[in-house]
Structures are given as structure tokens and as C-alpha cells.
């Protein structure tokens, strides 16, 4: 699996689409096998889900994102985990250990967050 984490310095970004870069972790057999930084292409609706799908990302961790963005990630077969906070290194280790579940978005857009179906 490949996990993208919205990044603000060493911490998980509160809003996936507004951060400047993403940490991409390749994980095999519960071990991190590779980590790279992807610079944000900018906050343009629909662009980032396609870019991450092209980079084989299967999961996204962030503090928050709007429901339309969640739908776009789901359409690209990427599972979204919201409500994640803290240091990036802790977040990826907790995710690998199964300690992170899909939560509520830390940003507000006037609509409730919903999960991917299927």
C-alpha cells in the first residue's frame, strides 16, 4: 500500500488541499519501505486525487478535507482517513498498527463528511 499524508512541517496538515507538500509512504508487510515528498500541484479541484492515483497512492491521511474532495478520492480508489493530527511519523506508525480509523474532518465546509462506499 502507499499512504499520502498532508504535511505542514513535521505535522499532519489540518486541510489536505491547502498544504504545500505530501509525505508518500510505501508500506509492505507492516514496514515502511520508502518515503518521498510530493510537492503540491496547488489547490485545484480534482487535480490532486488523479495525481496521487497516478503515484499509486491507496490511502490518504489528513486533518480534514471537504466532502467533494472525499468523493474525488473515492472515485480514484483512494481511501480517506480524516481527523488525523500530530506528528507525521507518529501518524504513519499508528496507521500501520491499525490505530487510526476514519474520523471527522477538522475543517468545515457546511456539509457533513462521508466515507467512501464500497
Q: What does this protein structure show overall?
A:
This protein has 118 residues and is of the alpha/beta class. The protein has a domain of 54 residues. 22% of the residues lie in helices and 27% in strands. Strands 1, 2, 3, 4, 5 and 6 form a six-stranded mixed beta sheet that branches. The C terminus is likely disordered.
Give the arrangement of secondary structure elements:
Layout: E1 2-8, E2 11-12, E3 21-28, E4 31-39, H1 47-54, E5 59-61, H2 67-75, E6 79-81, H3 88-96
Parallel strand pairs: 1-5, 5-6
Antiparallel strand pairs: 1-2, 1-3, 3-4
Large-scale geometry: globular
Q: Count of helical segments?
A: 3
Query: What do the pLDDT scores average to?
Result: 86
Question: Low-confidence segments, ≥5 residues, pLDDT <50?
Answer: 106-118
Span of the ends, CA to CA: 18 Å
Content-based structural category: alpha/beta
